[in-house]
Design goal:
Blueprint: H1 14-27, H2 34-45, H3 50-60, H4 64-73, E1 85-90, H5 93-97, H6 100-111, E2 124-129, E3 141-143, E4 146-148, H7 156-161
Length: 164
């Protein structure tokens, strides 16, 4: 049973909002300010939920639709929070032909989320990537900075258990 589109509730703090407002007021009158504001906002919050986009829109006068369009166009921006443990499965050619698609599917099943999502407890997030340059270890996934190579679907439970 995959994702019921579990969303992690937005929990911004007053300190975060104060930092964001400071960034906006510092940059908003500069030409091309939206990208640096969004980048700094993501640094502050870790992602760009609609609540943060609305603050940016209200404070800069930039329509929310335009902000959302920029956020969804550039892959550097995240609409969903990332988990404490960021899992990334390589789906590049070398990894894919050696079974990384099955590994990715097993992780979605095990975690109850789809790619780009975070578990409701905020512990794990799951993403796919194209190549991490470890083709000789295919199939490969990373959890934060830890690389796991020559994976089999049967390895997933033991690997995840290390992070429980």
């Amino acid at each position: 049973m995959l994702s019921k589109k579990t969303t992690v509730q937005f929990r911004g703090t007053e300190e975060q909002e104060k930092a964001l407002l400071g960034v906006i007021h510092e940059l908003k009158d500069e030409k091309g300010a939206l990208m640096p504001i969004l980048q700094k906002a993501q640094d502050i919050y870790g992602y760009l939920p609609i609540e943060v986009q609305k603050i940016i829109s209200d404070e800069t006068g930039i329509p929310l639709e335009k902000i959302y369009g920029v956020v969804t166009f550039y892959s550097q921006f995240n609409l969903n929070p990332k988990g404490k443990y960021k899992i990334s499965v390589c789906l590049g050619t070398a990894c894919y032909v050696k079974g990384s698609g099955d590994i990715y599917n097993k992780l979605m099943e095990k975690l109850g989320i789809v790619g780009g999502e975070c578990t409701p407890d905020g512990k794990f997030s799951l993403d796919a990537c194209r190549c991490i340059g470890a083709c000789g270890l295919a199939p490969v996934m990373t959890i934060n900075d830890e690389v796991y190579g020559r994976l089999k679907v049967e390895d997933i439970d033991d690997i995840l258990a290390k992070y429980e």
